[in-house]
Amino acid sequence: MSRVATQTAPSREKPARRTYTTLLVLVLTLTVLGLLAVYTAGSELSERSYGGNPAYLFLEQAKRAVIGVAIMLLLARVPYKVWKLAAIPGVVVAAGFLVLVALDTPLAVTVNGATRWIRLGSFQFQPSELARYALVLFIAWWGWLRGRDIQDLGKGFLPVLGVIVTLTALIVWQPDFSTAAMLMAISLVLLFITGAKFWHISSLILPGLAAAVAIVIKSPYKLDRIKVLLNPASDPTGGGYQLIQSFTGMGRGGILGVGPGGSRQKMFFLPEAHTDFIYAIIGEEFGLIGTLALLFLFLLLIYTGLKIARRSPEPFGAYLAAGITLSVGFYALANMAVTVGVLPPTGLPLPLISYGGTSLLMTLAALGILLNIARTVDDEPQAVPARKMNTAPKRTATPARRRTTT
After folding, report:
1. Residue 275 CB contacts under 8 Å (≥ 6 apart), including other chains
2. What pLDDT digit, counting tens, does each position of 343-400 carry?
3. pLDDT digits (tens, 9 = 90+) for 225-263
4. What sign does the dihedral 187-193-194-195 (CA atoms) show?
5. Which of 202, 196, 78 is nearest to 139 (CA)?
């Protein structure tokens, strides 16, 4: 940008911050919709399991939402560049918690045969959620730190790949193959965005497939999930039951739905109706219109986040914004794909919508960082308008006249 353009550009005391406002409205809208969905999807479970109070799960989620929004707004005012200092400590802490889970220490909590939680006093959380965003932060920092060296196999690619493989392996150990696979997918796409060579990334496909096959062979129930996905009716009372009930609910909803609170599937027909399969309850009560509207909001969130990444004034902000956006977007699309039978049941929550404290708090915290990047983007003078203002004609050098001799 030229000096003339910088001096003549009009100063604004209060920037419009349209991107920031758009993102904030989207996040708050999705959070409120999530609370309403938890209330209607979890009312039957709340009434039967928590002293006859149909609003119990809603109130618990509302408390977390208030705390999460407060954290988000606080982090939205913290300069995102300070998170460079947390890149290494973040993955170390996340790895430490994952090791505590893997070793089945007294702090680890086992539910339904899977050890995925840590309990600290009355607070219980999933270390894999912390690992997801810690890894995004680390890759963004590494891409900024290495610059073009990220294309070097030894200096740039292998060190960060080692961190990714370590964290995902610890998550597989829980076992939580779905989260590990999602974490690997987000990490590799983000690595490509930072400038890593495509052939470095693509060379991992065959080893990755081999590892996935080995895991499936070791755990036959994962193979059963794939078989059930292809034909849920093959095991209608076992592995295919959840998918069949999901299809039943969404089919019953039709175009406009049966209305708020009118779901039958939440009456203990559909397992995990308020968590993993909450999208099916939304489809039943609000129909195809409701599910498409929610999908549109998430797509708009993804578009806004990638727009922030593209307009970020420096690489770290761009990579971090892209990573946070990919993390939220991949999880949302995967959850919806499971509900409609495109992917096998994974146990991944629908961000900002599904019941669950760790997912909601971590997602809102990460979006708070994204909001700060959006604030920076909105405050940054745009290069194109400034160039347009510099209308002074360029001076062109006139060629010297050649002397002619007679």
Report:
1. 349, 354, 355, 356
2. 888 889 999 999 988 999 999 999 999 999 999 998 876 533 333 333 333 444 444 4
3. 787 888 888 888 888 899 999 999 999 999 999 999 999
4. positive
5. 196
